[in-house]
Write the structure tokens for this entry.
Amino acid sequence: MNKKEELAKLEKELTAANLPLKSDANLVFGEGNPDCAVMFIGEAPGETEDRLKRPFVGRAGKLLDECIAGIGWKRADVYITNIVKRRPPENRDPLPEEIEAYKPFLTRQIEIISPKVIATLGRFSMNYFLPYAKISRDHGKVFEVDGRIVFPLYHPAAALRATAVMDDLKKDFTRLPDIAKGILSDGVLAAEFAALKNPKARKDDVPPPQAPLF
Ligand code: URA
């Protein structure tokens, strides 16, 4: 099976599974290029996403599209999804049990796509991968989780509410093309990333759990 077929099979299973929010909302599985370098993961669909069954197609989505275009990419180049794949009522925060219930499906979605970089959008998605991270402190830093690069970004909806957050989001975005190419900071390449991950290569300079690489 190729990636598209595997994703279609996963979507079918997800549609059939008895998961929270199923009776009240449509499934928003995710979309994009399964061979992408960067997979964007948000929180949960909103009203427009629920109606159109597509992720990030409302106001926040328009801003995400602008940020992607701003670095010379197209939306179709990347893959976009959410940790919770149905809209919580009134757009409330997703509950821990909802995040947990959708987790096996997101895990498989990530495994199938196998992106170089997971760019998280907002606090919930960031904390899914990095439970102790703080968005105001850790946005725009590069982390390594289970052998994959995780790059936390502010949620576009938060950027629409505050100019300073918008500035940070756009600035962090400008790092993505290099990070996707394996250039993690000036002069540091992917090969060195492997060495940095290896505690022996770092001698006694072993970072605490979830310390950013850059
Ligand atoms: N906010 C999200 O976190 N996801 C969407 O798909 C839309 C808005």
